[in-house]
Amino acid sequence: MFKKLASVILAVLLLALSAPAAFAEGGLFCRMMETEYADDRLPALDEAAETVSVTQTEGSVTVEICQAYYEGNRVYISYRASSLILEQDGLELGDGAYADIIAGGSTELEDGSVEGWKECIVPEDELADTQTFCFTYRIPGSEAKKVLSVTLAHNGYVQYLQGVSPDGTGPAHAILYAGKVDVKGAVILNAPEQVPGWLAWQNGEEGDGKDFVCGWNLYRNGEMVSCDLFGGAETLEDGVVFSVMYPYMDDFSGLTLVPEYSEAGEKPDEAITLEPMDPGAA
Length: 282
Description:
Layout: E1 2-4, H1 21-24, H2 28-31, H3 42-48, E2 50-58, E3 61-71, E4 74-81, E5 86-88, E6 91-93, E7 98-108, E8 114-121, E9 130-138, E10 146-153, E11 159-164, E12 172-178, E13 182-189, H4 195-202, E14 213-220, E15 223-226, E16 232-236, E17 239-247, E18 255-261, E19 265-266, E20 272-273, E21 275-276
């Protein structure tokens, strides 16, 4: 489960003098926008995250959790190490459970230090008002397990959205949850005829040539906001469930989800209009 950090020599120094003004005054999440592990959500995450500055030093190696944020079923941390370390992919919880990594990355700076970030998914049965997360690593040449812990308060979602396909264009139902970092959720497409095409595509096969929905793009008042950042889907006997994710936004008006087909491209006439929903119905 441990892996050596990916080492990438940056083309430019991650310093205020070389970073764009938009990120120069931000924290480590914002600085990661200048690496190959950039993510559209990082500036919003930089704003939402708590500065924790939890450090641990072993010999000449110092490791620090710089920022952390716990929202919905996700936890995010940014971290720094004074030299290369062997780190666990995800994060351990205080009771020994595991939060698996789903996004992030790390980069080596010119001075040999390492900066990175992680997004990990918290098991549903581990969600709590407060939770302890453990960054676990080893120093090269040592088998000793090192643990750096941070306890975080849970942040709920700020807006719930739902919508269904217009009459006559297919039974799709979307439920999305908006937080301070992103908008995530699921689109359930009850269309058994689309399952073979999806299974063939997932297996790298040509399939039967039938057109199928391959993703959902988010629009506001006819202008694209974002393509799906996650792109995950699960096939069922009677359809497909899409796990979707989009960057943070503070305006939830005029939002629609437009399906994109494998052959025909986008079909705006099948767009799902998103409306606020009662959190109790989620």
